[in-house]
Predict the 3D structure of the following.
Amino acid sequence: MTNPHTALTIVGSIGIDTIETPAEKHEEILGGSASYACAAAAFFTHCGMVGVVGTDFPPAFRRIWSDMNIDLEGLRTVEGKTFRWSGVYEENMDNRRTLSTELNVFETFSPELPDSYCEAPYLFLGNIHPALQLHVLEQVHSPKFILIDTMDLWINIDRPDLEKVIGKCHMLTLNESEAQLFTGAHTLSQAARQLLELGPEYVLIKKGANGSMLFSRGEIFLLHAYPLEQFKDPTGAGDTFAGGLMGALAASGRTDLEAIRQAMVYGSITASFGVEEFSLDRLARLDRVEIEERVAGFKEMCRL
Ligand code: AMP
């Protein structure tokens, strides 16, 4: 499906994952940061995916995305194998170990945006090499709001490019341990202050099942995670959160703090559904009514 009015462009990895938890093992399932983020964003807005897959990529996976109304004009298929990743969760599901990463066609990937995506007012730069994130920024026509994600690998091996690209974005998202790795700070407030000095207006620190914190110069917003009784697979939760957030923000047409707070609630609630099952299985069966019901329940829990 293509559409000239893409409101949100999402760039990231597309992977075929093998994931093992203490209870289950799932092989060769659909994953990747762009995949999770688009699946979440598509509940709220028209989003376009930028990524690469190999010629081995199953048509059934592509159908999952098109059934979700994700615009796939920016998806490239090149000769070779799709990126593969496998990981295992320890007993408490808090710690995850990567077992293998096969870059395959992702190794030579250079994101090229279709013309219709260059005008999109909202952009999510998912976790890919910071030089490639910079390359995306060279192509877009002054978006209203850019969110960037990253990971420990890039903090360790390409800090100069990472700092450069963060300085060009409105919001940076990373998890607690990445914020500490990046800054060496002892508290998240200290880490956020240092990260804000790189240039973004907002720093969003994710704390997994403990929620998230949004820092701007002078203000902090605390968001609890939705209390699930059980979940099956936390893979991609951060990407689902970010995608839902950006989708809801794009739908609002706004970029102010109040709109960002509301969008964070939608991102977090969408992610709470995503982890209930492996891959995009739960998101593929989810509808907007269920999201609204859980948002309403969540707001009631947080009422002061
Ligand atoms: P997360 O749980 O946020 O770390 O995201 C998990 C997704 O990231 C999985 O579906 C993987 O396919 C993908 N992934 C794993 N390693 C990498 C990497 N080095 N670069 C980009 N994506 C990755």
Summary: The chain has a mean pLDDT of 96.
